[in-house]
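seq:
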Amino acid sequence: MNTEIPSDRIQRILVIRRNRMGDMICTLPLIRALREKFPKVVIRVACEKTGEPIARACGAVDEVVVLKKGVNRLHTLLRNLRSLRGFDLAIGVKAGYDRHLAAMVRWSGAACRIGFSPDGKTGCYNYPLPLPQFNERQIESCLRLLVPLGIEQAPEDLHLDLPSGASGFAEQLAVEKGFSQRYLTVFNLSSNRDQWESEKYAALGRLLLDKTGGLIGLSCLPQDRSRADEIMRDIDSRDVFVFHSPGPLDLAAILKRANLLVTPEGGVAHLAAATNTPAIILWPRGGPFDKWNSRLSCHHDLRATGALETVSVEAVWTVIEQKFLHDPISS
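struct:
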């Protein structure tokens, strides 16, 4: 097995990262470490549609291509072959072994191919790495893929270079709702995982408005608008508003202006890590906590004893009072 790749052989790098938005955010430190190591090479990211906006918001990336879906794995490979070819180095980014991903890396034809492989066997990778431990943090697993390049350590830089359109969306909403000078709490109501109950969001919202004199923004996808409207009616205050962000970077721009986010674990929690937004992250029991939890000092993880419904309003409010509301009005 090869151990280290000569740097002078690398002119074009392909990073393949499938899966969702949070996975791409966890890949940003790897991409930035590649740019630091190879300041003049071309770096292309091939990803699924959900990861595209995040990849484009990384200044270390030169090119982004969205992987096309086929009717089966072979058809998918054939549809994407042109965008995967012509690279000296290809990295399959996943904290484990994925045969589909490995095949993409192999079909890229890159002379140097890095990825995790069972028992360190070469297979599709000629620079394979043994599988990470199940509970290893996702970011750390991704960064270990750089060892064959002689990169042993790299900063966990998750920041996003937000486009002007996203910043403009946040500015327009700030003017419209008047939260530029007021304490803003965002409740994320949309999640593809377990959700907290609407009545608990409403009860927490009333406590926050009474304590902070600020505003509450209910962030939701269009399919959750009726739930958001129900919570807004239950809180019964003109200081609550519902908003839908056109895309994840627009939401990130809002989060940069927020004083606090309350959200189930998932993609929006990763956005909060990328924007350094203070957050309470609600975790159901049995969730992949060790792989995905944030280590930011401004984040607090609340782990349920079962489903998220077992997290009480009192538990969340206690954390808010102790950690986030020392001087809310001037924050």
